[in-house]
């Protein structure tokens, strides 16, 4: 009974968020004229960002408590710091490679069911969050408020983490664990495609 209830909750949580992301994918960016809206849509419209952020929630759900809530909190907090570095013009080498590697590494951690200690998982997530945040910060349009933009991308990122957590609840069953690990493999392949310039 508990297993079935968890699946229902996961699906109910994931469906509206996936629909939001699907609508965002059709958004061209026209008409976005506030820092918050631009920051909110930016992570959702970029597949290289989407896969990594969903992977954080997915890996957190796979690891269970307390990682299920610590990792999705660490990522946006550290990402905001990386964003501040980007806005301030602090250089960071290989940002795009770091973003692509986040998908590869996090996807492989999920695919191979790696159960890292919480502090190791937080460090891994935090390192990749710096790259994602820096990219957002350097792409901030001059006319937009950096504070509104930062809040927007933290909220957008949080929603993507929730999608990952929702799917991660499928690990309550054997078939669900296989599906989650398979999703990790797909995430790693998407990251590799970006890394090698195939996407």
Distance from N terminus to C terminus (CA atoms, Å) equals 42 Å
Global Rg: 16 Å
Main structural class: mainly alpha
Number of strands: 0
Q: What's the mean pLDDT score?
A: 79
Put simply, the count of helices is: 8
User: Roughly what fraction of the amino acids lie in strands?
Assistant: under 5%
Number of domains: 1
Helix-strand pattern:
HHHHHHHH
Give an account of the 3D structure:
The longest helix is centred in the first third of the chain and has 24 residues, at 2-25. The chain is mostly helical. Helix content is 78%, strand content 0%. Helix 3 (47-63) runs antiparallel to helix 8 (174-195), helix 4 (67-87) runs parallel beside helix 6 (118-138) and helix 5 (95-111) packs antiparallel against helix 8 (174-195). It has one domain (2-24, 36-195). The model is unreliable at 4-32 (pLDDT under 50). The chain crosses the membrane at residues 44-62, 69-88, 94-113, 118-135, 147-171, 178-198. It comes from Roseicyclus elongatus DSM 19469. InterPro entries: HupE_UreJ. This is HupE-UreJ family metal transporter.
SSE map:
Layout: H1 2-25, H2 35-45, H3 47-63, H4 67-87, H5 95-111, H6 118-138, H7 146-168, H8 174-195
Question: Any key phrases for this structure?
Answer:
membrane, 8 helices, HupE-UreJ family metal transporter, transmembrane helix, HupE_UreJ, globular, mainly alpha, 199 residues, transmembrane
